[in-house]
Amino acid sequence: MSEINIATKIIFLLEKICQAYRNYLWQIAYKEDLTPTQIEILQTVVSCPQSNVSHIAKELGVSKPTASEAIKALIEKGFLHAQNDPSDKRKKILTLTKKGRALTKRTEKLNALFLNCLEKLPPSQNKNLYKALLLTVKILYEEGMFKLIRFCPFCANRKSSPQPICIITNKPVSPENFRPNCPHFKEIN
Which one in 7, 14, 176, 182 has a CA-CA gap of 20 to 30 Å to 88? Predict the structure, then answer.
């Protein structure tokens, strides 16, 4: 029998982590008669408060009609509220209702479980894992696997210099300063 290389083992483990995350969200979705996409929309609204249909579609990698239909159902079920965007009356800004906030609190329990697992690792292993995952995401982004990643390496809010500087935090754009789901994220055109 041939030896299985480490990359294959890592992919297997990443699949298992994704499966656990997906299964947990699906259980919550099922109890509330929601789809997994609808749960993802609610999570996106939490992490990006100025979300609209176009933003949700791009963030989740779905079509605008798919996002629009899912958002309409979330509004009808009382999880989301849509209000006119003051800067563009054609757009609607999405906000969570009390019911929506309560549901997203339940989804945060899984994040806490993952955080607990990672805190059990020595800091050096966490740092190496972070660097490896960061590089993997960067490569996948460059291969077109993501339409949008709200994360410092992909943000336009920076001054170019030998070491780019974030214009929001005034810190170097480097792995130790990256802010996932930064509310100030601005997509690079």
Answer: 182
132: Cβ contacts below 8 Å, ≥ 6 apart: none
Which residues, in sequence order, are CB contacts of 44 under 8 Å at separation 6+? 51, 55, 56, 59, 60
- Domains, the chain, in order of start with CATH, read 6-120 (1.10.10.10)
Compute the distance between CA of residue 72 and CA of residue 105 in angstroms, rounded to an integer.
Answer: 21
Instruction: Show Cβ contacts of residue 147 under 8 Å, excluding neighbours closer than 6 positions.
Output: 58, 59, 61
Share of the chain above pLDDT 90, in %: 46
Q: Which single residue is written with the structure tokens 């408060």?
A: 49
- Residues 51, 57, 60, 62, Cα dihedral to 10°: 170
Q: Is the dihedral of CA 168, 173, 176, 182 positive or negative?
A: positive
- pLDDT value at position 1? 65
By DSSP bridging, strand 88-96 and strand 165-166 are unpaired
Q: Measured between alpha carbons, how far is residue 156 from residues 69, 114, 150, 173 in Å?
A: 30, 30, 10, 11
Among 50, 47, 43, 49, which residue's Cα sits nearest to residue 74? 43
- H or E element at residue 66: helix 64-76
Give the C-alpha distances (Å, rounded to integers) separating 159 from 134, 140, 170: 21, 25, 9
Give the residue from 69, 18, 70, 21 showing the smallest Cα distance to 41.
Answer: 70
| 180 or 70: which leads in pLDDT | 70
